[in-house]
Amino acid sequence: MDMSELPLEDVPGLADLAHRAADRGQVVYLTEHGQRLAAIVPADIAGELAAMSAEERAELFEDLQDSLAARRALAAVEAGEPVVPWEEVKSRLEL
Fold it and tell me: pTM for the whole thing?
């Protein structure tokens, strides 16, 4: 058996959880003392990640981080947090 695989029959109760999560395209985190150690992701997503080069994965993760930052910024604007106009940013940076 490949050490990167764990048969569901070896972990009671995990099979049902994995099937339900995969059917919904969800990620299931495996935790210990509240700390995330690993994740179960739908197999098609894992397959796509495995087929990528290290550089492609790094670029994808960077894109995801950028997307998360943009979503947080948009949520802040929608929540009424103050926005610094671009011209003021350029002025402060002396651009």
Answer: 0.58
- Supply 50's token pair: 């495995």
Alpha helices in the chain (DSSP H): 14-23, 43-51, 54-78, 86-92
- For residue range 58-77, list pLDDT tens digits in order: 999 999 999 999 999 999 99
Three-state SS for 39? Answer: strand
For the cut 50, the answer to whether the pLDDT of residue 5 exceeds it is: yes
Structural domain boundaries in the chain: 1-51, 52-95
Residue 24, classed as helix, strand or coil, is coil
8: DSSP letter:
G
The four Cα atoms 75, 79, 84, 87 give a dihedral, to 10 degrees, of 70
